[in-house]
Design brief:
Blueprint lengths: L1 E10 L4 H12 L6 E4 L4 E6 H19 L2 E9 L5
Antiparallel strand pairs: 1-3, 1-4, 2-3
Helix pairs in contact: 1-2
């Protein structure tokens, strides 16, 4: 089932722009997911299981590499933007 996640990241660091750019760049390493950055959030589209695996791995990576951050995520199972 194709699903969509809209992610906003709020790092607890002054260099937050670089951390957000690194997060978005790392998302692009997932070849089966479509990543569309926007001005306030990034939309990720793909198969539900792959999307959930990606989010789990990315949140862990972000915490281990950069420390604390708040993520606001909307997940829409069965939705593919046109």
């Amino acid at each position: 089932m194709i699903s969509t996640a809209e992610i906003s990241m709020y790092p607890f660091q002054e260099s937050y722009k670089e951390l957000i750019k690194a997060f978005i760049a790392k998302l692009s390493y997932y070849p089966d997911l479509q990543v569309t950055p926007g001005p306030t959030s990034t939309v990720v589209v793909g198969e539900y299981e792959q999307l959930m695996t990606c989010l789990t791995e990315m949140f862990r990576w972000s915490h281990e590499e950069h420390g604390k951050a708040v993520f606001v995520v909307k997940i829409m199972p069965g939705y593919e933007p046109s």
